[in-house]
## 1
Amino acid sequence: MKSLSIVIPVYNTEKYLEECFLSIIPQLKDDDEVIFIEDGSTDGSRECLVRLIHDCGKRNIRLIALEVNMGLSNARNIGIEAAKGEYIAFVDSDDYIEQGALSQIDNEIRLHNCDMVVTKINGFAEADVNRSYLAPELNIEFLNALPYAAFFEEIAKTGLGLGPSVRYICRKDIIDRFGLRFENIHDEDQIWSAKLVLYCKTVRLFYDDYYHYRLRGDSLSTSCSFERVQDLFAIGKSIYSLIEDYPEHKNFLLSRSRHMYNKAVSAINLLPQEQAARAEALIASDGLFYILTKS
């Protein structure tokens, strides 16, 4: 993989940090780097990172310590600005990477010289969490043989969640050329990853074990509020608006936009009554909702 920068935002994940750290560091090549963005944690995350970095003795690990919490999107953006690798990946600090996976992905990139790699995410739940995530079965050879636009149109039909930024390893210069950054909203990955698909031209699907995603009851991805519903609708609109400039990806963008609207509707069912009523009023005034969900 030429060189890789792995950006890892950290906020109050002290009890998971060592597992995350040890899953990645032994896999690094000399020209790779890991950038930890310690986002003003109130637990012992910063001290834990300092100890882990000191004990491992490697020079290609960087710690950027923020004095105040700036949020996940800003932390990732700081990591993007700091990254020096030819490729970039994102990892959440409560998750971990399969041993040996990075060298396999390196081989894929060297062999096919692709702009991005789409990877497999395995979900695992903590003992007190009643959630599950099972990666769908895919025809890897069929998908990898498709033209670029057809690849994403087909893969969107499979149920593979295309939103998480941690699913992608991509060329850093593409992110820089298009100024692709994370917005400070709920589900910030969704619009970021949709745009990434539009900006890249070549892709490989790597479907051996790679990313292990921890399902936590207190994580940002499980929280629900009226503001999150608003953001989900806004993301759906933003993705839909990209169709005019990228008509070759129309079916993919329609699928992603429809997914965001359906996700918003599902979230409404989890809101308190007063907030749910406000959210339902949003639907009633939104003509695009009916176009996407009734078509």
## 2
Amino acid sequence: MNVNHPIDEETLMNTLRQHITDITEDPDLGIKTELNNESQVVNSDLKDTQKTLQKNLKYILGCTMTGSDDIHLLWQSSSYVIFDDRDGILTEGLSDNINFECDLSLIHKLHSRMANKIFRSFTEKPPREGDTWIINVPQHWAHATQSMETLLTELIKKGISPTQALDYWMVEIQNKTIPNWATEREKSTQTIRKNIEKATERINRDSSSLEFDADHYFKSVYDGRYTTENRRIVSVNGHHLDPRTDLYDYSSSGSLSWGYRGAGPTQLAAAMLSDVIGANQVNHDMIISFRKFCNKKMGESDQWRIVEDEILEWYNEYSEEDPP
């Protein structure tokens, strides 16, 4: 994947080859010059498209969540947000804000084909009615979303109701005033205040917590453990580890496990590798090899910990043995 837009090189070049019908060969360079020139133009337009979509991501999501079904949210993950532009609203906005050098229909086609590639491993592919637009999730956005999900999940795990957790988060963490938040929620200030008091009481009564050391604050540290309900939980620096089923669908439920050869351990290997070295550097053979490393280190233990440095050390050794 290009760091500046979501279309990978294979999808880009294959689409351009189909788009250009008269390609001339340069006898000196030995390359298809027209294809190369067109690629530069299209890459520039793709970057401008991505920059505009990322800049307005919060407005697009806000209107999609609260407005009509003109724009439909197809998929959201830590890597992508994908929209179905059913009435061409995003297309119109992009046309007004960008001076495209290439045919806009080509940009549509590239986004659509890349979406097909992303959805390829999905058991049920989202239905699409209009133009498809893919937005790379900015890193700061992904981190903020992950922090919010982790906090709300932890509050609910403490026995706080989802409504109480939301009110606590908006007022105590986001620093909204109770009157303003009550107006947005269309509830009385008394209701909001009571929910916050109940949440605070639960938090003060709860004595459970994870122990972190200095590594957790400055590098990725992965912890696996069994819960009292005999469930397997994997976290990275206190956050639940994203299983990345949007990239590799070994475990359709997204469950992570360890200690044997199966879907759960394979999904765990894919998730950890994608998190440390980047999803675009990972492939199936690498995942299977890393699963062996993980199973050997973790065994069938109830609790384990792997630090980012150990994964990078394994990756460097693997790259030397099996260079790309």
